[in-house]
Amino acid sequence: MTLKDLPPLRDSLSDHGLLAKKSFGQHFLLDLNITRKIARLAGPLDGQTVIEVGPGPGGLTRALLEAGAKVVAIEKDARFSALLHQLAELADGALTVVEDDALKADEAALLAGVPGHVVSNLPYNVGTPLLIKWLTRPWRPVSMTLMFQKEVADRIAAPVGDDAYGRLSVIAQAVCEAKVVMDLPPRAFTPPPKVSSAVVRLDPKPDALDPALLANLEKVTAAAFGQRRKMLRSSLKVLGGEALCAAAGIEPEARAETVDVAGFLRLAEQL
Ligand code: SAM
Q1: Which of 148, 219, 220, 269 gives 20 to 30 Å between its CA and that of 47?
Q2: Which of 204, 226, 251 is the last residue of a domain?
Q3: 54-90, pLDDT tens digit by residue?
């Protein structure tokens, strides 16, 4: 048997007696046309190494393997172990299954120095903390193609001045080029979530930000967007207020949502 001969995902789930668990954020993609499209949006992946968080029944995993990727799949729910190991046998060395919490996983150690992409239909409950981890920790993915709730995807890619523009937009766009590349309605998932979803493609900029600058960026954006209706001279008061704004060439009367990513980077530099 090869990957192409596998039964439909719905049958794989029922063969293993698996039902989705809400506590693990399980909303499965059982249509291989959709998972193949996500793999294409993440591509080209032939010969590339990919970390997939939360393979679950393995729909996206199958598509990544078909695209020629080597996949390291991190799944927290041990109920999927038998099904995923069966897939790994068919994948003939191209799939490694790791039973772990992706928040705690050490990507650099898992990949043993090989550069890797991240592709995932993320569990909604840990999507943002996982993205922050990949944006701010020393291990840098080659690219990330990630499914989020639509509202979170919009925040990641929002331009300055947009209602969705906030802390996540600034940190994501300081580190990466970020773009929403696909929208999916609730009915695309089993069981359907309450909200729509979207895939974001993030490509890290060639030069990594200095860790101290990134830490300052986190501080400045937390203060500025924590009180987004206030003028910066007041919301940034504890960090230097008016003097900090002047040093960074930002109007102290400006509000957080009108300051672009370059402006926040200047504030972080001056802090
Ligand atoms: N990739 C599958 C698909 O597209 O059908 C499943 C996606 S489902 C939205 C999220 C998956 O992440 C589930 O399989 C869930 O068990 C797993 N998961 C949840 N929290 C996790 C964590 N902290 N670490 C690793 N996997 C996790």
Answers
A1: 148
A2: 204
A3: 999 999 999 999 999 999 999 999 999 999 999 999 9
CA–centroid distance, residue 147 to ligand 1 (Å): 11
The enclosing domain of 237 has a CATH number of 1.10.8.100
Q: Which domain holds residue 226?
A: 211-270
Instruction: Specify the 3-state DSSP secondary structure of 148.
Output: strand
**Per-residue pLDDT reduced to its tens digit, 149-192:** 999 999 999 999 999 999 999 999 999 999 999 999 999 999 99
DSSP letters, 214-247, are HHHHHHHHHHHHHTTTSBHHHHTGGGTHHHHHHH
**Which residues, in sequence order, are CB contacts of 240 under 8 Å at separation 6+?**
247, 270, 271
Which pTM was predicted? 0.96
CB of 58 within 6 A of ligand 1: the answer is no
- d(C-alpha 163, C-alpha 21), whole Å: 33
